[in-house]
């Protein structure tokens, strides 16, 4: 079916599917955990003075990869994460087109469900060459090109949305570098799945995992997601 496309104040795309998906997810989570607030991309105007009081809350992107959704290429996802003390402790990423679901709980492993089958997943360590590198379908710039050139023998694999984290978690990809802004709802669920499978998502400037709801703005900095934490990622990002 067709859908309408509008633009938010920051000029990012908003389709007529975003808000209904937001409403369905928020309603379900509110019924499941009525005492926990829900922060969604479509409700991001909540004031910092309200958010800073939260210890536990749901962080949701009802349609991650809006550009991919508009292009009808299937590379979009639904992201739901439970944040506790700034850390994603439960995460679900669903690919609506295929029906595949990746889910994880911190300390309890990561899983991939397709149809009636569910399998535990782990990252590929150590990875074989060429490194399989997730390349964004919609975001590429000169800095990223320089980083990729430093990585040596690689195979670029086009992938959209949080599916990149999940593909690393299941061992079909190895690295996802992102030099450019993302929002907290873009990464939290995928980070949980990746970490539970043995990988890491690290801030490029500090080497620390992302924490959430620590500042007024809901934007992430540059990062690298790795299936194998031993990869020489600092050499790749130095000076960029």
From TrEMBL:
Keyword Cell division in annotation: no
Quote the protein name from its UniProt record.
Answer: 3'(2'),5'-bisphosphate nucleotidase CysQ
Q: Which family does it belong to?
A: Belongs to the inositol monophosphatase superfamily. CysQ family.
**PROSITE patterns recorded:** IMP_1, IMP_2
| Entry GO MF terms | 3'(2'),5'-bisphosphate nucleotidase activity; magnesium ion binding
Q: Which InterPro entries match?
A: CysQ (IPR006240), CysQ/Inositol_MonoPase (IPR050725), Inositol_monoP_metal-BS (IPR020583), Inositol_monophosphatase-like (IPR000760), Inositol_monophosphatase_CS (IPR020550)
Q: Which domain of life is it from?
A: Bacteria
* Binding-site list for Mg(2+): 41, 61, 63-64, 186
Q: Describe the reaction catalysed, as an equation.
A: adenosine 3',5'-bisphosphate + H2O = AMP + phosphate
Needs which cofactor? Mg(2+)
Q: Which UniProt keywords apply?
A: Cell inner membrane, Cell membrane, Hydrolase, Magnesium, Membrane, Metal-binding
EC number(s) stated in the UniProt entry for this protein: 3.1.3.7
One of the GO BP terms on file: phosphatidylinositol phosphate biosynthetic process
């Amino acid at each position: 079916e067709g859908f309408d496309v509008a633009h938010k104040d920051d000029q990012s795309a908003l389709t007529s599917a975003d808000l209904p998906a937001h409403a369905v997810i928020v309603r379900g989570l509110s019924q499941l955990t009525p005492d926990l607030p829900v922060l969604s991309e479509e409700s991001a105007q909540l004031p910092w003075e309200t958010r800073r009081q939260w210890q536990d809350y749901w962080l949701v992107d009802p349609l991650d990869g809006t550009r991919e959704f508009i292009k009808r290429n299937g590379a979009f996802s639904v992201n739901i994460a439970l944040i506790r003390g700034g850390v994603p402790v439960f995460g679900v990423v669903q690919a609506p087109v295929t029906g595949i679901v990746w889910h994880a709980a911190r300390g309890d492993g990561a899983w991939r469900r397709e149809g009636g089958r569910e399998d535990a997943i782990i990252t590929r360590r150590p990875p074989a060459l060429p490194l399989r590198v997730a390349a964004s379908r919609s975001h590429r710039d000169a800095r990223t090109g320089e980083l990729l050139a430093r990585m040596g023998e690689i195979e670029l694999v086009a992938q959209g949305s949080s599916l990149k984290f999940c593909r690393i978690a299941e061992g079909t990809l190895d690295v996802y570098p992102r030099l450019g802004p993302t929002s907290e709802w873009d990464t939290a669920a995928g980070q949980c799945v990746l970490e539970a499978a043995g990988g890491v998502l690290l801030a490029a400037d500090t080497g620390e995992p992302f924490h959430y709801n620590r500042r007024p703005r809901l934007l992430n900095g540059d990062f690298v997601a790795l299936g194998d934490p031993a990869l020489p990622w600092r050499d790749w990002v130095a000076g960029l």
